[in-house]
Design goal:
Length: 939
């Protein structure tokens, strides 16, 4: 076990003889045990216990204090791969350092999330980088490189990409199917995963909870047909938590867990994350599948080998750790956290109000003005900086006044006033810089529950986060929370947890309201032993002590400038398990900026959020708006430095900001081409376009040239800083194919670069772009294709702020009709459709199409039936209904006895030459394929 690892040409120990030796020495039971997330050690072989899965999206999560960087969508907003690589490097260093003192910290990190931010109402918007596959792939590649480390042989951590595939909804996330036609699959969803894998810093992927084209991702044939063809390196596929059981329990895709486990293993799942730390049920299912001959020992060995290969790459089988110990919470990491937060700030609008003069008297208001929010995948903050901290540090405490702007209320019922007893201040739970540790406070039962008193009530801060969801906070800053014993206490520093216990809703009742606890669904009731939740609640009447908008009005009137900090709490109204229902800013926060603006026209709206908002009125009425994702531990200091002009903002929007909910497609509509989604296809006017972001300087673009050589487009231009201060610019290159035979994007990002220029400085920039990147997936011929023709290249500061254009002509693939005589028609390879969805042809591979309602239509363009034409058609279909081809040839599909029981039906059908074909589906029919009978076969 001490011999040197042999290296493959890529420099990684994937051919390690010790992996072979270990695999051969393990018993069958030991190998089966390795298939669960928590694998036991094998002492006789010197094999340590191991677990897959350490969350590390923007810092080490769930393992206590760690450096917290901006949310992933904020890292995407930097448009800066080198910065993100350094963030990944810092995170992997802290993983190693933390593991040295805590064996629970895993080296197989589940990060980054590369799901595309197709729909801005997705609850996990904060976890992705961008709506664009090119930008997402670039940022993800950079982060995985940092996580992998720079050692030529051994990996600091082993990154796993999440979540394979076409996953962008929390609503019914384990049962909803994303209908993804081939063009969208290849041009959009797969594209985000492919580059990070091809560039060699990815250890594996995690399938998503959802289904794609009717088939659960955990048995996706694309794992074998796509993912594993992109690299010669072994890849470890780790299931998402509980997903193996979902195959039976919620998706009902298999009748037994043995069948499900076998199918997942055969599809390529190597590590089963299920039933927490208890491996017994998974190992029993694998054993049962083996006994039923659904799998073989060789199938088990394939998965085990992939796991051992990753562990070898991590240096686990060396006598001494071949990598230096990691660094933790260093000065460099703290500086990097601030740099990342600064680069993530996007200046949306500025009519000259920003940057602020150094002697400005500032009124800082808003529900997030003195907050440093974390999310579900954050580590515990070692340091924190709120906007209030940052502005007082930068401008001086005497020049910054603060008003939160919350409504202050008291609640009364027949039993008396709601009262928060004075209790322990929980000082033992205070961590770094006096921060309360929510993990220690939430759910506590040692603090006294609320009571009622007849003489006086406690004044509570009421925050309406939108959709009627409220939080209530005691004067000492603790949130009302419900513990497992059902009592209501002021015991949480922040809302949080997998099931948030700090949120409530009001339901009208009598002359007051019932207070419903959202975490349990039960109602707050005033009982003799203390306030608690029950099936029936107490009616409370609310006394408003002060409206938050009134406090904001007073503060705004006495200031030179007002900064309103608004946004979301990452645990409320949009998070894992919960999609948003609207783009609107919550009403209470909307009222605050309006009150500030009425009192003082010099009002800035700073949005701090995990996702976009629709704020057209604020854009129209306010002189300046900014956005940043929750920026981690240095968020407040970074925002203050941008507002002061110490840093010129240069973040760019990683996704389109729409003006209204009516601009959005259905949440579950994944056909970005057909429904014109994202900046690639959207034909409306966005509030702010993809790639948008302003600076405090100005930049000129000039001298554009482009040529095609050696399979690449070489595009060169000059950027000059024509403004008064050093600033960053992000020149973006887009392509717009002209006059193409199939729909292509309005414009499509090909390259970008973030650069820093001093006043008057200029830089000549060259973007080499492979010609293949200008192509599309040709469904007519089932291939990637670059069509001959003219392509417009556009260079600018955003997808809509184009400064330079030129055209090139490519000699590529000539448009050709569909060879339907030779190859027939796969139903899912349509050009356009109406009222259909793609479903699974069989449980293991292939697609079919079925109506999403009573009737659906498919359109196939330029089908070549030959000069002699065809005289017949053959339809492969299942289910029950009719298939009508062309202008009226109808084939009746009898009830076939199940969705996977296909029949073949023949009928007369005549067509000659090249023509479009329309196919109409009715009933529950599932159409898999059409083939045609040439005329010559009838003579």
């Amino acid at each position: 076990m001490t011999e040197e690892l042999p290296l493959d040409p890529g420099g990684t120990p994937s051919a390690d003889k010790r992996v072979d030796d270990l695999l051969a020495a393990l018993t069958l039971d030991e190998r089966i045990a390795l298939l669960h997330q928590f694998t036991p050690g094998v002492d006789r072989l010197g094999l340590a216990a191991f677990r897959t899965g350490q969350e590390a999206l923007h810092g080490v999560a769930w393992m206590g204090p760690a450096t917290v960087f901006p949310q992933s969508v904020g890292l995407g907003a930097t448009w800066n791969e080198e910065l993100v690589r350094r963030v990944g490097d810092a995170v992997s260093s802290e993983v190693r350092a933390m593991r040295a003192r805590d064996a629970r910290v895993g080296l197989n990190v589940w990060a980054p999330t590369v799901n595309l931010l197709r729909h801005p109402l997705w609850g996990r918007n904060e976890e992705g980088y961008s709506e664009d596959p090119c930008l997402t792939a670039a940022i993800a590649t950079a982060y995985t490189r940092g996580l992998r480390g720079t050692h030529p042989t051994y990996w600091r951590t082993a990154p796993v990409l999440k979540h394979w595939l076409a996953h962008n909804n929390e609503t019914a996330r384990d049962t909803a199917s994303s209908s993804v036609r081939p063009r969208v699959l290849h041009e959009y969803d797969l594209k985000a995963f492919r580059r990070p894998v091809e560039e060699g810093a990815v250890a594996g992927v995690m399938p998503a909870y959802n289904l794609v084209n009717g088939r659960p991702n955990h048995v996706s044939p694309y794992l074998r047909e796509q993912l594993r063809t992109w690299t010669a390196q072994e890849l470890l596929v780790c299931s998402d938590a509980g997903a193996p059981s979902n195959l039976v329990d919620s998706e009902h895709y298999y009748a037994t867990h043995e069948e499900a486990a076998a199918a997942a293993l055969l599809a390529g799942v190597d590590s089963f994350t299920d039933h927490g730390t208890d491996p017994s049920r998974i190992t029993a299912r694998i054993r049962g599948a083996l006994e039923r001959r659904l799998i073989t020992e060789a199938d088990i060995d394939t998965a085990v080998r992939r796991q051992l290969d990753v562990r070898a790459r991590l240096g686990e089988f060396e006598d001494d750790d071949p990598l230096p110990p990691g660094a933790f919470d260093t000065d460099a990491h703290r500086a990097l956290a601030r740099e990342a937060a600064e680069q993530a700030v996007v200046l949306l609008k500025n009519d000259g109000l920003l940057p602020l003069p150094g002697d400005a008297r500032i009124a800082l208001v808003g529900l997030l003005a003195d907050e440093c929010k974390t999310d579900w995948y954050s580590g515990t903050l070692l340091h924190r900086s709120t906007p209030l901290d940052g502005l007082r540090e930068r401008f001086g405490p005497d020049r910054v006044t603060f008003t939160e702007g919350v409504d202050r209320v008291r609640l009364r019922c027949d039993e008396g006033w709601l009262y928060v007893p004075e209790g322990a201040a929980a000082t033992e739970a205070r961590g770094a810089e006096g921060a309360l540790d929510p993990a220690l406070l939430a759910g506590r039962t040692d603090l006294p529950p609320l009571t009622t008193r007849t003489d006086e009530g406690t004044e509570l801060a009421l925050v309406d986060w939108g959709n009627g969801v409220l939080t209530l906070r005691a004067p000492d800053g603790r949130y009302l929370s419900v513990a497992d014993d059902g009592f209501v206490r002021a015991s949480a520093d922040q809302p949080g947890g997998w099931i948030v216990q700090e949120t409530f809703t009001l339901e009208a009742a009598g002359d007051g309201h019932l207070l419903r606890h959202t975490g349990s669904g039960r109602y707050v009731v005033a009982a003799a032993e203390g306030v608690q939740v029950a099936d029936r609640g107490t009616v409370f009447r609310m006394e408003v002590v002060e409206r938050g908008a009134d406090a904001v009005t007073r503060a705004a009137a006495d200031a030179d400038v007002v900064i309103v900090v608004a946004g979301n709490d990452p645990h409320i109204n949009g998070r894992e398990t919960e999609d948003r229902t609207t783009l609107d800013l919550p009403g209470q926060q909307d009222a605050l900026w309006r009150a500030a603006r009425a009192a003082n026209p010099d009002t800035v709206l700073a949005l701090v959020s995990a996702y976009p908002y629709a704020v057209p009125d604020a854009d129209r009425e306010l002189p300046a708006l900014l956005w940043t994702a929750h920026g981690g531990q240095a968020a407040g200091r970074a925002l203050a430095r941008v507002l002061a002009g110490d840093v010129s903002p240069a973040g760019r929007l990683p996704q389109t900001w729409y003006a209204a909910d009516s601009d959005l497609p259905d949440l579950l509509d994944y056909d970005i081409i057909g429904s014109r989604q994202t900046y690639l296809y959207y034909e409306g006017t966005p509030l702010y376009p993809f790639g948008h972001g302003l600076t405090y300087s100005s930049f000129a673009y000039a001298d554009l040239s482009a040529e095609v050589r050696a399979g690449a487009v070489q595009l060169t231009f000059t950027v000059t800083n024509t403004g008064p201060r050093t600033a960053d610019e992000v020149p973006q290159l887009y392509v717009r194919p002209l006059g193409m035979p199939v729909p292509r994007p309005r414009r499509q990002l090909l390259a970008h670069r973030r650069l820093t220029l001093a006043p008057g400085a200029r830089e000549r920039i060259t973007y080499p772009v492979p010609v293949a990147d200008l192509g599309h997936f040709d469904v007519a011929h089932d291939r990637w294709s670059v069509t001959s023709g003219t392509y417009e290249l556009l260079v600018g500061a955003s997808s809509e702020d184009i400064r330079l254009t030129t055209e090139i002509t490519l000699d590529g693939d000539a448009p050709a009709p569909r060879p339907v005589l030779a190859h027939g028609l796969d139903a899912a390879a349509y050009d356009t459709q109406r009222g259909t969805e793609i479903v699974d042809r069989t449980k293991t591979r292939g697609d079919a199409v079925t109506p999403s309602g009573a009737t659906g239509e498919l359109h196939y363009l330029a089908c070549d039936f030959g000069a002699d034409g065809v005289t017949g058609i053959r339809v492969e279909a299942a289910g029950e209904g009719t298939v009508t081809v062309g202008d009226g040839r109808t084939l009746t599909v009898p009830a076939t006895g199940g969705p996977y029981r296909y029949v073949t039906l023949d009928a007369d059908f005549t067509a000659t030459g090249v023509r479009d074909l329309r196919v109409t589906l009715d009933g529950t029919v599932r159409l898999a394929r059409l083939t045609f009978i040439p005329r010559r076969l009838d003579t």
